[in-house]
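Lecture notes, unit on protein representations.

Consider one protein chain, 607 amino acids long.
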Amino acid sequence: MIENGDSKLANFSLAISRSYGPNPGQEQACAELLASLDGLPNDVVQPAMDDALQLVEGSIKRADALMQKMRTLQNSSVRINRLPAELLVEIFWRVAALVWRAKHRRFQHYYGLICVTHVCRHWRTVALDAARLWATIRIVSPEEHEWDEFDDKRRVMEYLYRSKSHPLDIRIHELSESNADGCIETLHPHLHRIQKLRIRVETDSIMRIVISSLRTVAAQLEELDLDASHTSLIRRRYTSLTLWPPRHVFFEGHTPLLHSLRLSLVTIPLNSVILRNLRHLTLHKQNMPITHMDTFLDVLDNCPDLEMLSVQSHGRFPSSPLPPTRTDRVVSLSALQTLAIAWQQPMFSSLLLAHAHLPRPTKLRLIVDVDQHLEAEGPGAQLIILDNRLLRPTGNDSIYTLSSIHTLRIMTHPNISFEGYIQTDRDPITVSPGLSPCTEPALTITLDGRRPSLAHVMTSFMQAHRGAVPFSVVHTLIFDCTDLTLSSDDWAHIFGAMLRLRTLHLFRIPRRSLLSCFRALCPSEVAEDQAFGDGTQLLVGLETMKVHESNFVDKELRAVLERTLQHLSAKGALERLQLVRKPRARPKVNEELVGQFCTVEIIVGDT
């Protein structure tokens, strides 16, 4: 086979040499004959020159055609051009996408594809035949250009033509009001094959223009993303776009394949027909309060396969929604993987969690505006979350994540945050710089507010939910609050909410708070053999305490630690003290003395 190929190449080279190789004798003869014609009459020379030029031009054209075939054969022999066309298309697509993400410029993605079509004939043929490459269209139309005069229109029309009948992925960014009508008019004949539609605009007036044109049936639409808060203009606007009535909006309500909906500063009534059979639902910056909880629960009932739900209000709503008509109503969301609630309306989060059934591990993200839950302003303000407005003591067993929290981390950076981890085969918190978790928390509760003190917010919240999940099922507590000063009463409220606590890790805590913590755990300093506060012995089941030795720089702290360990080992179940010591650091705690009360383990780390 190889010998046969070598023979063909030799014959081809010989034929090219004979036909196009240099022939000095013949070239010299032609030059001499051409020179001899000088001086002859024009009517004699002109016809002869015409015939000669035609022969030479014909020879050149044949040579060009042969050269084109030779270049095509040469390119096809390159390894990358031997790849299947489908694989080559995938390479083109990924290169174009990488250029877009790297440059963050509107033309880079398109220039990447266009450059591909100018490399060689084979690449151009493959690229133009792949409708998928041209089905993703990004539109960025600045204010200073009219749509008909802007290059985007010509490019968009060319992309629409090259995409043939392939489903479209349309992404519109920074569309100006003067260009909105022209842009939608260009896209309108192709709305029936849009699969993904993402629109980011600066004002609600532009969004109204866009949405008013989306009335054609979208039989292939799967993802819809409308955002009227694309720029900093959101800082100067306090109302979102409200659409009514819903049946005249969004493709005449006929979107049979729609499974993902994201609205930001665009509000639709909850009884809209588009809120059905969704797998991803994001409602951000919504300006319409929930008047009746049944209406929102109906939306969830209409989306039984929901995998992600995120709701965020735009501002605060003072009145609570009416509770469900049936107190025993339950909405089962067996496929839900993520639930994020930042809806600042009293009782909304509580009612949603009380009537939701989440049987599988679900990532919960809850943000509570503490300022909204204050009865009065000032230092003496009392939190009305004492009536369990967020998490109820009962009824949460049907939420797997809440009832399965094994480790809880409390932080103040800058707001109070509770991070919960479900039980795992290994400790989800590692002793590394910053005490970084090696897994994402399954539960995050953020208490956001400025008016009350952080200590009051946290202790009131935990006291309100004493005996309720997740606090009642926590086995490990990691306390990481560098700027929080707690009293012994505060610590009593915290520990009183965690009756099953087995491991206590005191990480970054101010000296004063650390003293208060040990005094709360060692009530002998208040009265002999009398528990602190209401007389209940705290942390009777505590087995392990982990502290950082660098915190015990003075004798008072070391003495309080020793008395606390002695009390917990005698009155409780304490078995182990873990001391985290910096490398090459001198010991500060008397290991021999505290070793009389429990086992001492030294952990060398940089934290």
